[in-house]
Fold:
Amino acid sequence: MDDFKLLEETLNDAIARAELEGQTCGLKHSAGDPAENHFAVDYLCQDLGDPRTGDISSQIRIPVCQECVDALYDEEWILAYCVYCHKSQWINRSHAKIEHPLGNGVYWLDVCPFCAEIVTEYKEDKDG
Ligand SMILES: [Zn+2]
Ligand SMILES: [Zn+2]
Structure:
């Protein structure tokens, strides 16, 4: 039973790695060194759903490069990722305007300033 589970995990891992081939980083890099220059080595995964019920409605999987993996493990850097428009922003903890609690390395935003307007329009459309 455990052997099977291990095999399954190994296979899943192998499949994920094969899918990564040729993929570039899905997170923000500087304009002079865009994400297209960085090949993905892993995925950043997050389950999306209702936190009150624990229901998972979907999962996002973002290909990330080694540089971003390192930053994700670095307490100095916080990642803000918008699940709506897939824009991301790195926040440097020591330069941040507000204090961020330690241990929270990634903020998953339902909506960010870039797409707030679009979402508002969409909601008005749906409600009215
Ligand atoms: Zn990257
Ligand atoms: Zn957004």
